[in-house]
Task: structure prediction
Amino acid sequence: MSKSSLIFIQHRGASAPCARLIASCVFTAGTMLAGVGTAQVQQPAPSAAPKGPPAAQVQKSEPALAPPGAAVTPPPSWQQGRSDTQQKSPLHPFSPHLTGRPASELPINKLKLPAGFKVEVWVEGVPEARSLALGDKGTVFVGNRNLTDVYAVVDKGGKREVKKILKGLKAPNGVAFSKGTLYVAERGRITRYDGIESRLDNPPEAKVVIDGLDPTQQPGHFWKYLALGPDGKLYFNIGAPGNIVMPNYMQASISRVDPNTGVMETYAQGVRNSVGFDWHPTTKQLWFTNHGRDWISDDMPNDTLHRAARKGMNFGYPFCHQGDLVDPDLGKGRSCKEFDPPAAKLGAHIAPLGMRFYTGKMFPAEYRNNIFVAMHGSWNRSTKQGYNVMRVIVDEKGNTKMEPFLEGFLTDPQADPPMWGRPVDVLVMRDGALLVSDDFNGIIYRISYAK
Result:
């Protein structure tokens, strides 16, 4: 596929592929839900560069007025929800280096951890490395959002080798593994690949678990995170189709599907965009990260961490954000008391993505059952923040305390771009080490501990 055949949406820190042909990315206002004006057309694909700032930045200036009768290109979806005073804002998302960058060109030595911990490059050359899953034989499976492939990282003679095992998929962001089967969440479906770990060079044909998860083909938060719950069901997000819009019955939710029957049900509602969740090792309750809306202010609303103690909870979107902020556009006549509050406010526009409870034995005992959260970092903020991995301490009552764990990706909060790397997902390995993916550079890091 040539780069010229793609058009892109820029949203929440990267550009996301919409379709193979430009014509297929034209949406009509009739397909959009309440709260969305005209549909958003995606922006041109960036051409990655090995050095310097991101290869492509979204257009910062306002488009010139078209002559009467001329076709007008709607603004990109990430601009939806801007107020009149924000129309000339220079804020914009940041594009990843889709071809990756060599670790030798990056300031890895700038990364900081608590005493006793060590970070190193585990593997490079995994284009736009995002969601991680661990196979029974130690294979690490890696999904991505803007590209079309799934990768496997294997140990070969003491060295790690990156294999492209699946091709031609639509935004295969979510990956999960259980009992010999790899599950992949694409834009509109979830598929399974049985026995794939023994057939990495000749993968089996995909079997569809469920399809039709993106019937409207709208822009917005269409990429999916995927995880297998303690009940044996696959959990996945269906994000809101825009920044602040009225979702349909499937959107702005976390759902689950029985991988054996294909029966789907909604588990939690009012979730604008969750791209990471896990279950508490003791209580077995679902915890997840969530992105607040853009274009209210630098400090509002917070992105959040939630605990879904039971099926059927509603966390407020699009009427309420961060548990106590009524939306100025769609929240009129509503109260945040109608909805379930978050377990923690994480900070404004920091884009929390993957999260895992730490269940390994390598780290000190006080880290056991803590949450590690990958903060992708802000773009909708004048002074950028995030771009790190945070440790969240959870007590027996579900109260939380947050502190920095892995820092050093953020170089200058006022610069464009402000960082040299962006954490996306975390994965606890069998030896207790913690892997961290970085989609900006196509690198996976390994964090270990020694007294």
In short: Confidence is low (pLDDT under 50) at residues 1-64.
